[in-house]
Amino acid sequence: xxxxxxxxxxxxxxxxxxxxxxxxxxxxxxxxxxxxxxxxxxxxxxxxxxxxxxxxxxxxxxxxxxxxxxxxxxxxxxxxxxxxxxxxxxxxxxxxxxxxxxxxxxxxxxxxxxxxxxxxxxxxxxxxxxxxxxxxxxxxxxxxxxxxxxxxxxxxxxxxxxxxxxxxxxxxxx
Amino acid sequence: xxxxxxxxxxxxxxxxxxxxxxxxxxxxxxxxxxxxxxxxxxxxxxxxxxxxxxxxxxxxxxxxxxxxxxxxxxxxxxxxxxxxxxxxxxxxxxxxxxxxxxxxxxxxxxxxxxxxxxxxxxxxxxxxxxxxxxxxxxxxxxxxxxxxxxxxxxxxxxxxxxxxxxxxxxxxxxxxxxxxxxxxxxxxxxxxxxxxxxx
Lengths: 174, 199
Hints:
The structure holds 2 protein chains of 2 kinds.
Chain A: H1 2-10, H2 12-19, H3 23-49, H4 59-87, H5 89-93, H6 96-118, H7 121-125, H8 134-156, H9 160-164
Helix pairs in contact in A: 3-4, 3-8, 6-8
Chain B: H1 3-12, H2 14-21, H3 25-51, H4 61-89, H5 91-95, H6 98-119, H7 125-128, H8 136-160, H9 179-182, H10 190-198
Helix pairs in contact in B: 2-4, 3-4, 3-8, 6-8
């Protein structure tokens, strides 16, 4: 894996991103803007389940309003994230936070899709007479927790040794 | 007391000391800052999208803004506290850092933009809140708000890439930023000259 990372880091495209001093901050900023879009979209859906926002809309309407923002935001984040990995593959691949983040992103997407699929059809179309079960509310909040953990791990990539100590994959490399 | 001595006191405070020396403080505080910034930006995007007539066109503006306002302010408070903690770690270097100063200026701009909107267009919201988009003043405020908050995020990330200072260090000078802790005024030689240029 380290060999692959070193090869990738030496490719002309990777070198070009590294050489342009503005590229990585710019890509990271776009990545953070998209975190705002995706996280708040998920937050709105979770708050609707908790009946704290948009109670006059059905869950189906709220899902339809925010889901496209989640998926398109995730596409942009995948692209900007891929560019960041290409630019600094050794830094990313030797970070425990990076791998945990990748794993949790899969969990987060599956949890979000599973939550939507597990809902009874009535949950999508009915208004006030429909109340989410306690289990659905807990599930929604837990999904939000997964996405918060993903944000934490994203920032923690830059602090792998500080956060994970001897567990850090780069502990032996530094 | 002038601003620089306040900044020095912030840096030499026990909070500043803790942020510098604690191994886990910086990553944890930074992540919470990112989470808070995400909520601030995401909720503002929804409200501005409504003002521009791009999103939630059929929901009254008052409803869109009132149900998100407490989330925006709470997240802003968290961002401000975590931001202050990060600032305390290296206050004197951030103080002379151009992206940091520009970010603070942008935040003031965001506040002024919001105040002007509330004072004029926002005050008459009941008259237009059912319309597809806000009057011109509201749409301008929304466009400005999106531009300013986007630049706040860009400038914030930019600060991290300047390592707290943003001037070229001459080859013959070795800068040790711990000297800020001792005293700003007792600096001598090229380091003092460098700093004087930016302070």
